[in-house]
Predict the structure of Spondin domain-containing protein.
Amino acid sequence: MTRLLALAALFAVLPAASQDALLIEDVPTVSAGMGTADGPFTLLSLRDGSVVVPYDAATRADSASAAWDLGLRGTEVILNGGASGPGGIEGALVAEPFESVLGVPSDVVADGAGECPRGAARVVCHGSGNGWYLYADNGVEPLADRTLVIRRADGTAAKVRFVSYELGDAVGDVRPRYVTLEVAPLVAE
């Protein structure tokens, strides 16, 4: 009984967002290689962590829907809004640690707005140091002080932390990458 009370007291002092955090582990994605913006995106729902359209899907019908929030192709990230999809999602990549982000910034935009130093104009720019990661000695390292904030068309919002990026074993001509994300709801303002 004492342990149960201690556990209840712990959850009482944690912010609600940390209690509702969702860890989406080992999302498979592929990339045609460094500097090559080619191939399909893995499309995810950040509400429940499900893969809506895997990169190797025979049909990509759901890609033209609001069923997904975020797409991954290697280290590239798209949001379902603006130039990247019909979902109405806007976002911002905030230079703050995940735990410090408590609300939606006023400068959220859709993919296609703004500029990126390399590649297409997206909320999350592509390339080492331009977005959520750096190339390091052992591969891709997520930046601890980068948090993606999204606001959906229905007014709900979430924050996303890129936890890890791992190369898988080659299967034929394909070498999948596995991305792990942490997602927590935010109060949209």
Observations:
- Residues 2-13 form the longest helix (12 residues).
- Residues 111 and 122 are 4 Å apart (CA to CA).
- The radius of gyration is 17 Å.
